[in-house]
Write a structure and sequence with these properties.
Elements lengths: L1 H25 L11 H12 L1 H10 L9 H14 L9 H20 L6 H4 L2 H16 L3 H58 L4 H37 L10 H17 L4 E8 L2 H8 L1 H18 L5 E6 L2 E7 L3 H17 L13 E7 L7 H18 L4 E4 L1
Parallel strand pairs: 4-5
Antiparallel strand pairs: 1-3, 1-4, 2-3
Length: 404
């Protein structure tokens, strides 16, 4: 069965490589932004939550692979990969692993199409998810190095996606403000011109005109000052939002790496201890699928609030992705870091989520890594901690583990 899958993948790769050469011969210098069939987007969303229904709809649809453009074929392979993830309780471990291998096969075929797709289109979130799904499937088949590389690619590309999205939003705000400001300045100049003309025409009413001019100037000065204050407040708010995760209000990856680098440098110079905690809510995906995204978001928000309460004032708490979080504990040896992790686990387990309809107790996995000569920056510490989380999930060991 495994040999058959490998042969099929090899033939499909050969076919996709041939198609790629032919397409590049036709369009050697320019790759257009392809239009996407809306039905494919709907099928991707459905395949994430209900693979069986998605397979049925795909079979009944009029979608033909050969008639799709490269971008649509890319999404088609993602749908096929998601469909393989059927949560059938009757499947044994080997069957589940075979499902994951088939998913990997489809996702790799999608990656083969990247030379045929515009880079801007590839940077959209539905296309970036290929790396996230590859990381998950590699991890479930025991290919941890490939899982790490895929997850690293996803984090890098996702950070770039968020940064570009933020930059576009800031650019739009600046354009809107600039247009409004030009209109206001133009209105002010027109009013001043009209006032001067009126002053010449009505020389006998100089005193009245001067007073009116004074009031108008003061009015526009107040308006202008208010606009400046509003702009400063808006810029301050934008800068604050750029440092935080929009859903949970925890700090984001970019801020974690910036602040973490400064803290680690200080700890090394002052020869102080430091630990990094990678934290993951167990079975969060199942909880989210059963209760819906709204309930899942509320759980994440409450989890972050409880975690921040547990942390010390000098600690950093960030959301990495999904239900995975990172805590950076300066001036904390391993023993104190483990105590903080245990306190957080107890606090989460004791919290009552009945108010949002969750009657089960939540628990977490925590991987602890200590600052050392080989692990002397945020990236190295984080990679080791994430690897530790995978080992906790795969081996079903204690929920809190220390990795050297």
């Amino acid at each position: 069965m495994r040999l058959t899958s490998y042969i099929t993948l090899l033939l499909l790769n050969l076919f996709m490589s041939t198609s790629s050469v032919a397409y590049q011969d036709t369009y050697p210098t320019y790759i257009p932004v392809f239009s996407i069939n809306k039905q494919l987007y709907l099928l991707i969303e459905l395949s994430e939550t209900s693979p069986v229904k998605a397979k049925k709809q795909l079979d009944q649809s009029d979608i033909t692979f050969k008639k799709l453009n490269p971008a649509e074929q890319y999404l088609y392979f993602i749908i096929k990969a998601n469909i393989q993830q059927t949560n059938n309780l009757t499947y044994n471990i080997n069957q589940q692993i075979e499902q994951n291998r088939k998913s990997i096969s489809y996702l790799l075929q999608a990656k083969l199409l990247t030379p045929l797709i515009n880079d801007d289109q590839l940077n959209d979130l539905p296309f970036l998810n290929v790396y996230k799904k590859l990381a998950k499937n590699y991890a479930q088949t025991g290919q941890f190095k490939n899982a790490y590389n895929a997850n690293k690619n996803f984090i890098t590309k996702y950070d770039a996606y968020i940064k570009n999205k933020r930059d576009r939003h800031i650019f739009e705000l600046e354009n809107q403000y600039e247009t409004k400001r030009i209109k206001e300045v133009s209105t002010l100049l027109n009013n001043q011109t009209a006032l001067k003309a009126l002053e010449i025409d009505k020389s006998l009413q100089d005193d009245i005109v001067q007073r009116r001019n004074l009031y108008i100037v003061l009015f526009f000065m107040v308006i202008f000052l208010l606009l400046i204050i509003r702009l400063l407040l808006t810029n301050k708010r934008i800068n604050e939002l750029a440092k935080k995760d929009m859903l949970t209000d925890a700090i984001n990856n970019e801020t974690l790496f910036k602040q973490g680098a400064t803290i680690i440098t200080r700890c090394i110079e002052q020869r102080q201890g430091l630990c990094l905690l990678a934290i993951k809510i167990k079975d969060f995906k199942t909880l989210n699928e059963l209760n819906g995204d709204y309930i899942g978001d509320e759980v994440l928000k409450q989890f972050v609030a409880l975690s921040i309460e547990t942390m010390r004032t000098r600690d950093i708490f960030a959301r990495l992705e999904g239900a995975t979080f990172v805590a950076l504990l300066p001036e904390a040896p391993v023993g104190e870091a483990k105590a903080i992790a245990q306190h957080l686990k107890d606090k989460i387990s004791a919290f009552n989520f009945n108010y949002i309809g969750i009657h089960q107790k939540l628990t977490i996995n925590v991987s602890i890594v200590e600052l050392s000569e080989s692990l002397n920056n945020v990236e190295h510490l984080l990679n080791s901690a994430i690897k530790g989380l995978y080992e906790i999930s795969d081996n079903d060991v204690n929920d809190i583990q220390i990795y050297q």
